[in-house]
Design goal:
single chain; alpha+beta; Jelly Rolls; Arc Repressor Mutant, subunit A; globular; DNA-binding
Length: 267
Amino acid sequence: MAESSEIIFDKLVYSCAFEKYRGHEEFIPEHFLGFQLSGETHAFYADGNTVISENQILLVRKNQLIRTIKYPGKSGKYQFISISLDSEILRQYALENKIIGEHSKQHKQKLFFEPDEFLNAYFLSLRPYINKTKEAKPKLANLKIREAIELILQSNPDLKNVLFDFSEPYKIDLEEFMNQNYMFNVSVETFAKLTGRSASGFKRDFAKAFKTTPKQWLRERRLDEAVYRIKYKKEKPADFYLDLGFENLSHFYYAFKQKFGLTTTEI
């Protein structure tokens, strides 16, 4: 059975699965607070990977790419709750409380919280909405997001510099970013936003840096990595084609033969 994700109210999402499930590439546009109810989430991103274990709470930063694999727990069930911290509500909260976040170019991926009875109780308070025994109207949904903000700051006041940094992604080194994130199968517009550029500016800078188009470069870069995995890591294409951003195995085999003139077994 595939994963089911249900939007309980505008910013609250409940995910459930009963077998190992591979998530799609995800662009995270807003910060979110997440709670692993059961099972594990293995998250992969440019700088490495993270395992989110049962009963673990974490804050995920906005404006990044993540790929996940979800594993059911001993109960045979995978469950994860996430609540998005809406930018507009964050702005209102900062204004009302006279909070100014300090912009920092330093990004630490792991933002786990120490066991906290208040945060645990908060997620337990969301169960009635998941179980459909209580309806969350817009005003109440707004209050639940504000409550999450309060609890995050109570747990770690320094996180104000994460929550209340409203600056747009700054223009970063395009070549370095693409070599770290080429395996994510997302749009050019998403790559552009994450590098602090418009779509047209991204394509223009990309041509200067790589002397080709994003589509052509991504295809070549992924296929070169495929050769390395086959020849030196002795991996099978079926085990890694999704990791390199190919949508299906037949597409990978076609592109591979077209570039190298050989099949994967011949190479």
